[in-house]
Amino acid sequence: MKLHGKNIVGGEPVTCSGPTFQHRSPLDLAPLEPPFEEASPTAIHRALEFADACFGEFQSRSQQDRAKFLEAIADQIMRLGDTLLKQAHQESGLPLDRLTGERGRTVGQLRLFASIVREGSWVDARIDPPLPERQPVPRPDLRRMLVPLGPVIVFGASNFPLAFSVAGGDTASAFAAGCPVVVKGHPAHPGTSELVAGAINDAARICGLPLGVFSLIHGGPETGRALVRHPLAKAVGFTGSRAAGLALNQVALSRPEPIPFFGELSSLNPVFLLPESLKERSQQIADGLKGSITLGVGQFCTKPGIVIGIAGPDFTRFASQFKESVEKAASGTMLHQGIAESYLSSLRSMSSIDEVEAFAVSEVNQDSLPGAKGTPVVLKTSARNFIQHRELWEEVFGPYTLLIEADSREEMQKLAQSLSGQLTATIHATTGDIHAFRPLISALQTKAGRIVLNGFPTGVEVSPAMQHGGPFPSTTDSRFTSVGTAAILRWTRPICLQNFPEFLLPDELRDRNPLGIMRQLDGQLTR
Ligand code: NAP
Question: What is 271-453's CATH number, 3.40.50.720, 1.20.1250.20, 3.40.50.10330, 3.40.309.10?
Answer without folding.
Answer: 3.40.309.10
